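Field reference: "sequence" (input) and "structure" (output). Example, Hydrolase or metal-binding protein:
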Amino acid sequence: MLKGLAITPPVLGRISIGKIVEKDGKRLPMKEDQFTITSQLQCRDGWILHPFDNTLRTEQGGKIRSIPIRLLFNEPDLNFRAEYSLFDRKTGRPMCVGNGETCRRKTDAGIASLPCPAPEGCGLAQAGACKPYGRLNVLIGDDDPLGSFIFRTTGFNSIRTLTARLQYFKAISGNRLSCMPLELKLRGKTTRQSHGSAIFYVDITLRGDQSIEEAINDAKRIEEQRQSAGFDQTALDQVARLGFGNGAFEDNEDDGSAVVEEFFPEQQKEASDAQPTPPTSLATKLDAKARQLSWQAPADAKPA
């Protein structure tokens, strides 16, 4: 295993609730009220849709609001990793990752472990450069038992909800999180900060009308089938943890460039940062008008 390189779950595609649009010559992120499932390939018009996208879109009448999933691991923090993250906006490289107590930061002397005061108290976290950033890996379909789709988010509502749900489902299933039949669900809410406009976030729920008892029984059945076949979930979780810990940062430069464009765009300057225009007095205006009239007077004009 190459030291310094984070070994992450193989990714077959992306799940998003937004896209990049062209506006006034700039590429800007735009939120949507639906899921989009794409492959790992891009073209001139953006990410190429995955076949799962068309299947679910047809089944749900045009907009994907839920996606049937399973999880790779029993440990919640292996399926969903959320940290405060700062990227270099020019290169897409991760620069600092922390949890509110400690951080790993790239310095001239290498990777340093330092205290993490969270974005509100950090001098580097200016103009939205550092945000909570989460990555969720899920399984869609049964074609590849280890090939995942990744959902990335910097939304506080998604991060808080996904973290809670994974912890709860692990607890009530008796540590059978990877065997639970679940689904990603898009939810909306309005807040005072959204000024009445709907904001959308991602949740994890049971599938359809399935009860919690039915879901747990399904998880027990799947676990028994896997154990009979020799599937070692504990070893898989252990290997995944070692892989994540093998590198200082999970995201590489290639992925980081797309992440920065979608989730860490350069913010407009605040009004307080702009240079103020000095007020123009009435006397100044009159002097300017007098000079203008004198410039417009004919050269041979004589006073009356």
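The CA atoms of residues 153 and 191 lie 19 Å apart.
The chain has seven helices and twelve strands.
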